[in-house]
Design goal:
- By secondary structure, the protein is mainly β.
- The protein is 10% helix and 37% strand.
- It is built from 3 helices and 18 strands.
- The strands form 4 sheets. An 8-stranded mixed beta sheet has the order 2-1-13-12-16-15-14-18.
- The radius of gyration is 18 Å and the shape is globular.
- It starts with a strand and ends in a 6-residue tail after the last strand.
- Pfam families: MOSC (PF03473), MOSC_N (PF03476).
- GO terms for molecular function: catalytic activity; molybdenum ion binding; pyridoxal phosphate binding.
- It comes from Pacificibacter marinus.
- This is MOSC domain protein.
Length: 272
């Protein structure tokens, strides 16, 4: 098994970009989802309710982040001294930094909705739910975990049942693994090593309406698919539709494309 794709998403729900090499720290890939677009309530926006986020592109820079939309681009430095509170679902995250009015105006104009941009500095801590991990772990503005892992054999199994195949980017994984192994094998993985990093798989990823959207435009391409087919092929015992596995970092390290993926521990399917 090999590491076939590495993707970083600097801003929650915006378009990500691929990497050749990445360092995995305690919050996952460096600078992954350290930024978020928030409403006036402080709640982080997602493509579930604001699909226009797919039209925005974000790239990390040496001093902050670069945002672009429809040919326009702005550079936003890491904010300092503007602490505020943000929310990911019901989780309150204190001491994030507001990125200022310039970024807020650019994003509000692009999204046709009053929003602001916030950043999670190193001094801000958001813990992963201890209901899924035996030891403390941290994450950025991801839904709940610092890494999402998917596999090409599982995507091929899904596409074999679809009239219109979908690409992996719909599922927004950080890590895509390919090789000669069975679809859904990742459900039985518990601990894997890629490069010098070790990751523990802690929870299957429940899928939502975002996977019915074109990943580059946010346009809904089909009201039901691929969710309807996934519901038939790959559901957890609680009825949730699953594609991919959430993971935390057990050993920090570096990985690069083509690295061997080694399964260190296996168990029964975590969909049961």
């Amino acid at each position: 098994m090999k590491l076939a794709r590495l993707t970083k998403y600097p801003v929650k729900s915006m378009t990500g970009y691929d990497l050749a090499i990445a360092y995995l720290g305690r919050r996952g890939i460096d600078d992954d989802r350290r930024w978020a677009v928030v409403y006036s309530s402080g709640i982080a926006a997602t493509r579930r309710e604001l699909p226009g986020l797919a039209n925005l592109h974000a790239v990390c820079t040496d001093v902050g982040i670069s945002l672009s939309c429809d040919g326009e681009r702005i550079d936003v430095p890491w904010p300092i001294g503007a602490p505020t509170t943000a929310y990911v679902f019901s989780t309150q995250i204190d001491d994030v930094q507001d990125a200022g009015n310039y970024a807020a105006h650019f994003l509000s104009s692009a999204l046709e909705r009053e929003v602001r941009l916030v950043y999670m500095p190193d001094t801000c801590e958001r813990s992963v739910s201890r209901g899924y991990t035996k030891t403390p772990h941290s994450t950025g503005f991801a839904d709940g975990f610092p890494l999402l892992i998917s596999t090409m054999p599982s995507l091929l199994a899904l596409n074999a049942e679809l009239t219109s195949p979908v690409e992996m980017r719909r599922f927004r994984p950080n890590i895509m693994i390919d090789g000669d192994f069975e679809p859904w094998a990742e459900d039985e993985w518990r601990l894997i090593r890629i490069g010098t990093a070790v990751m523990r798989i802690v929870k299957p990823c429940e899928r939502c309406v975002m996977v019915t959207q074109d990943p580059t435009t946010g346009t809904q391409t089909d009201r039901y698919e691929p969710l309807a087919t996934l519901k038939r092929l790959h559901r957890a015992s609680n009825g949730k539709v699953i594609f991919g596995q959430n993971a935390v970092i057990e050993v920090e390290g570096t990985m690069k494309l083509g690295d061997e993926v080694t399964v260190l521990e296996r168990g029964t399917s975590n969909l049961i």
